[in-house]
Amino acid sequence: MKLSNATLNDLPEAITRPTYDRSELTPGIVHIGLGNFHRAHQAWYLHRLMQAGQAQDWAIVGAGVRPYDEAMRQKMAAQDYLTTLIELDPAGSSAEVVGSMIDYVPIVEGNGPLIEKLADPAIRIVALTVTEGGYFLDPATKNFDPAHPDIQHDIATPEAPKTAFGAMIAALRTRRAAGDKPFTCQSCDNLPGNGDKLREVVLGLAGLMDPDLAAWIEENSSFPNSMVDCIVPATGRKELELVRSLGVEDDVPVTHENFRQWVIEDDFCNGRPGWETAGATISAQVHDYEAMKLRMLNGGHQVIAAPAEILGIETIAGAMAHPGIKALLRKVALDEIAPHVHDVPGMSTAQYVDLIDRRFSNPKIHDTVRRVAFDGSSRHTGAVLPGIRDSLAAGTPVEGLALSQALWCRMCAGTREDGSSIEPNDPVWDQLNAAALAARDARDAPQAWLEQRQFYGALAENARFSQAFATWLSLIWADGVEAALRRYQQG
User: Fold this and answer.
1) Which DSSP helix (H) or strand (E) runs through 66?
2) pLDDT digits (tens, 9 = 90+) for 110-136
3) Domains in the chain, ordered, with CATH?
């Protein structure tokens, strides 16, 4: 049965569907970057509120700024912006249709329709999931990079921007001129201090366009930090077959695990839904939750993805079924990452390691190693390298983290141990591949990888780290990944 408003009441009884009247919903949020994660996470929290008769004036309008977003818009529009969520858990699966999204802005060069929608006073929150690589940050410093060509385009043509941030600034300019309140700018990305970084990018770009407008935004808008968590695989043939097996024709279904977490700083300049009623945590300790999740879960993903890719393991659950990779994750997390992460209410670092062990090992979740390894140049620099710097500064063990970098280098050489090719999987793959091959072949081999200063900065000069890295990389090339994993466990 084709998913639509007209067929909601005819869906199989086992599928939960909206109990609220979607025709009565009015928009309050524009969400830029409408991928699987948003629809399984933020959209679900809002849907849950709507099921309880709340937040009827906070419906979501989807948006994007790249031409490829148009394909998603058309698929969503064809099914009235409804999404089937399928929870996959060893204890049993379930499905529900989420209806909190009611529209999707057309994708047009210059982003005129997006600017118009953002300028509407009814829109009180503009949220983003554009990935950590979408914030125009310098890879080494993680600070706003105004030299990026897209940013330079927006500075030169602020009325027809390419970036989401340029569109937000254009809309805020219109709202200021009309005497309307600004919207809250809400990052929902896996990025340390995501609200602070969003503030830095928006104010940095606005300051280069119009310093007076930048000052108004800084004084009147808000940029709450948040931590988001849910494992959401990409949708492919297997997921499409699964939703059809349930009796639903949905071109953009989403599968997810039986776990969600959303920790939000309560800093909203123009109101917000009562997300805490739906299970979100409103807290001033966002940074502690964020550090635990980014360092241990996101960093842990990168620690296991590289050896799994080199060994030809397809999924994260498959990686966790490999004794050496599972042991690597636990030892690195407990011995090298946890000492620099604070406990949070109700969860110690040791309990969190057990939690991510269970979540990563879920055989029902077909989360591919390739998806997790994608854009390692952003994910390692954001989630793994900060832990290395902390360990070096504190004099605590760093061997496993150095091993993780040697494994990433070996993966970027572009071949598996069975001789098959690893296809490019990073926006700067050519650069990473060249450095990895140089690190294998050059006389001063290991340093060729660490000399990517845009990632490693001063870490390249740290003798303890660089020597450990060199030892591991030489061992991996000489004896293979599994030998290196055994050596690390033996200490």
Assistant:
1) none
2) 999 999 999 999 999 999 999 888 999
3) 5-283 (3.40.50.720), 287-490 (1.10.1040.10)
